[in-house]
Amino acid sequence: MTHEIAVIPGDGIGQEVTPAAVEVLEALEIDFEFREADAGDRVKEVTGEALPEETYELAASADATLFGAAGETAADVILPLRDAVDSFVNIRPAKAYPGIDAVRPETDLVFLRENTEGVYAGHEDRLSEDVATLTRVVTQSASRDLGEFACEYVEDGDHDGFTIAHKANVMRETDGVFRDTIQSVADEHGVETDEVLMDAFATKVCLDPEQFDVVVCPNLAGDVLSDLAAGLVGGLGLLPSANVGPERGLFEPVHGTAPDIAGEGIANPAATIISAAMLLEYLGHDEEAERVQNAVETTLENGPRTADLGGDASTEDVTAAIIDTL
Ligand code: GGG
Asked: Is any atom of ligand 1 closer than 6 Å to the C-beta of 235?
């Protein structure tokens, strides 16, 4: 069976790390058909559109999508692409790998981030020169989908339960719906939960990350808190993500375009290659997913390493080492 994979490198280092992940996938004995498409700042400059219709349609029809990064046009690219694959959850593991000089080497977390609403729902207005507004949308239905996913994730994996991170003491209606709906789904499943205010979580996770395992968050909180966790494990070059929907998935590193190093060939491809491992698992290739994950971990431990991890290797050197280790 051939898997059709949409490949959307986007901008900045997305142009470097996405082909690296494709090279790793090509090294496996799996029948892939890769179809590349444009999105982001560069294509907008040329065509006036950050997300051409054919790119959206490709993501909406491919078996899975591998995406790199978007910069200034992130809202016009990433959010519609997540919609194209009907993704309601963004899975973001934050793990400290052996051999990496991490601030908190004991960190091993997974964020399950709501992926369709909150303040990223796109309802922003400029009412006057002085006043800008943003409508935060939280629904029981999206919170229920996330809650169901979180329960299944915990039941299928080696997890005791999950933590709900929210700010319902201030955003009583919106985060109240989020917290109460997810809690009631967990009760129906008999899954254990605890809850934490998201600002307190930011401190607690820095001081003692081991007290957390699976963390279920609203959209913006999941984006911010997973970047914070990246700081604990060695940087954004190490955090993958999977945007999962009922029939399709979009796999992308957590990091953005890194304009400060874009074009130099020194970006760390690990986050995108681990995202490709998540894509493999999503498509049912568990054994190959584990091989890729192990090859990345071995390479992170033994080198070569890119500059963000204290080395001087290029993106190509690291990718070649991962493929050799497979
Ligand atoms: N590879 C993902 C990317 O381009 N991240 C930049 C960004 O702005 N992300 C926002 C989000 O993940 O919602």
From this structure: no
